[in-house]
Specification:
Number of domains: 1
Main location: membrane
Strand content: 5-15%
Helix content: 25-40%
Family: Belongs to the glycosyltransferase 8 family.
Order of helices and strands: HHEHEHEHEEHEEHHEEHHHEEHH
Keywords: Glycoprotein, Glycosyltransferase, Membrane, Signal, Signal-anchor, Transferase, Transmembrane, Transmembrane helix
Strand order of the largest sheet: 3-2-1-4-9-6-10
CATH superfamily: Spore Coat Polysaccharide Biosynthesis Protein SpsA, Chain A
Number of strands: 11
Signal peptide: 1-23
CATH topology: Spore Coat Polysaccharide Biosynthesis Protein SpsA, Chain A
GO molecular function, one term: glycosyltransferase activity
CATH architecture: Alpha-Beta Complex
CATH class: Alpha Beta
Length: 362
C-alpha cells in the first residue's frame, strides 16, 4: 500500500505526541527528509576565520556548541540550530556536537540524516550517550520530563567529546538565539572558573534543596563562604579542559548518590550542578538566558520577557512553543519562536505580527 508523504508526516507527528521514544523508527530513511524544510544557506562574512581543509572538530578558532538530540524535542533542536546560523556573523564557523541516547527506540543515524537534510552544509557530529551511566543515579523529580537520562548528558560532555575540544557552549533544545553566538563564545572564564552562565543572586536558594539537606551540616557547609546564586544549566559556556582537570563529572555523581540515599533535592539535573559550581561561576549578562518562558515545572503558563535586551530565549518549564502553537493555545512569546520553525506540517500561521516586541541585540 502506498502512503503519501503528507500522510507519513501526519503519522510522524501523532507518534511524537503519543509515543515520542519510538517516533523516528516508524520511517525509512527516504521519508525522513520530508519532515522539515531545508534551511536557507547562511555563509561566512569576509571577516570570519579561514576554514582549514581538515576536519573542523578540533579547530579552536570556531564556535563549538553541544546539544542533546532526540525525537521528542527534535523540532526544538532544529529551530535552535536555525537560530544560531541565521543570526551568526560566521555561521559556517560553528560546529555542533549532538548527544543522542543509546536507547533502542532511538536511531542516531536517522537523526543524523534528518539534520543533514535540513542543513546540508552544517558541520556536526552525533555522539551516543549510554543511559547505563546514570541508570542507578537518577532520582525521580517533580516533573517526569526531568527524569529523562538524556537530561544528564551535559554532565558527561568532557568524556563524550574529543579531548582536543577545550571549550563548548551547551544549549537546551528549547532555546533560540537571536544574537551573534560569537559574542557568547568570546566571553572569558576568568581565574579557575569552569562554567559561565547568567546567575541570579536574589533567588530563594532554600527552595532548591530539602529540609534534610539544610539540617545536615555535612551537606549545607558546601555553600559556606559562597554567594547563594542560582544559575540555569540550559545555557552554559564550559571550559572542558578545567572540567577534566577537576574531574567534575565524578563530583556531580557523588551528589547524585547522596540524593538517592537522602533525598536532598526535588529537581532533576540542576541541583547537583549548584552543589558543585553554585557561587563560583563566571556571571554572564542575563540577556543570554531569558528563561522560564515555558512556565514553571508544573503549570504550562504564559510569561513575558524580562526587562532589558534579549540575546537568547529559553522555554524552560512545562510549556513548549511548538506544542502550544499547534494546539492553538500559544503564548505571545511563542510567536518569536515560530519564524525559526522549519517543520513542514505545523498547525499554525507563521505570519502573525507581534507589537511591542523588539530585540535590542539585533
Amino acid at each position: 500500500m502506498f502512503l503519501s508523504r503528507s500522510v507519513l508526516a501526519f503519522i510522524f507527528l501523532s507518534s511524537l505526541l503519543l509515543f515520542p521514544a519510538n517516533s523516528i523508527r516508524l520511517f525509512k530513511a527516504e521519508d525522513e527528509s520530508d519532515l522539515f524544510m531545508e534551511a536557507p544557506v547562511y555563509q561566512n562574512g569576509p571577516h570570519c576565520p579561514v576554514l582549514g581543509k581538515d576536519a573542523l572538530i578540533c579547530d579552536s578558532s570556531i564556535v563549538h556548541i553541544a546539544m542533546t538530540i532526540d525525537p521528542e524535542y527534535l523540532r526544538g533542536t532544529i529551530a535552535a540550530i536555525h537560530s544560531v546560523v541565521k543570526h551568526g556573523s560566521c555561521p559556517q564557523s560553528v560546529f555542533f556536537h549532538f548527544i543522542a541516547s543509546d536507547s533502542s527506540s532511538v536511531v542516531p543515524t536517522q537523526l543524523t540524516r534528518i539534520v543533514k537534510s535540513v542543513f546540508p552544509s552544517l558541520s556536526f557530529k552525533v555522539y551516543v550517550f549510554q543511559k547505563k551511566l546514570v541508570r542507578d543515579l537518577v532520582s525521580s523529580s517533580i516533573r517526569q520530563a526531568l527524569d529523562n537520562p538524556l537530561n544528564y548528558a551535559r554532565i558527561y560532555l568532557a568524556d563524550l567529546l574529543e579531548t582536543c575540544i577545550q571549550k563548548v557552549i551547551y544549549l537546551d533544545s528549547d532555546t533560540i538565539v537571536v544574537d551573534d553566538i560569537q559574542k557568547l563564545w568570546n566571553i572569558n572564564l576568568t581565574g579557575s572558573r569552569t562554567i559561565g552562565a547568567p546567575e541570579y543572586c536574589n533567588a530563594n536558594f532554600d527552595k532548591y534543596f530539602t529540609s534534610d539537606f539544610w539540617s545536615n551540616p555535612r551537606f549545607s557547609k558546601v555553600f559556606e563562604g559562597k554567594r547563594a546564586c542560582y544559575f540555569n544549566t540550559g545555557v552554559m559556556v564550559m571550559d572542558l579542559g578545567r572540567w577534566r582537570q577537576g574531574d567534575y563529572t565524578r563530583e556531580i555523581e557523588k551528589w547524585m548518590r547522596v540524593q538517592k540515599d537522602k533525598r536532598i533535592y526535588e529537581l532533576g539535573s540542576l541541583p547537583p550542578f549548584l552543589l558543585v559550581f553554585g557561587g563560583d561561576i563566571e556571571a554572564i549578562d542575563h540577556r543570554w538566558n531569558q528563561h522560564g518562558l515555558g512556565g514553571d515545572n508544573l503549570v504550562n503558563s504564559c510569561r513575558t520577557l524580562h526587562p532589558g535586551p534579549v540575546s537568547l530565549l529559553h522555554w524552560s518549564g512545562k510549556g513548549k512553543p511548538w506544542v502550544r502553537l499547534d494546539a492553538k493555545r500559544p503564548c505571545s512569546v511563542d510567536f518569536l519562536w515560530a519564524p525559526l520553525d522549519l517543520y513542514k506540517f505545523h498547525g499554525y500561521s507563521r505570519h502573525r505580527q507581534l507589537d511591542g516586541f523588539r530585540f535590542d541585540s539585533l
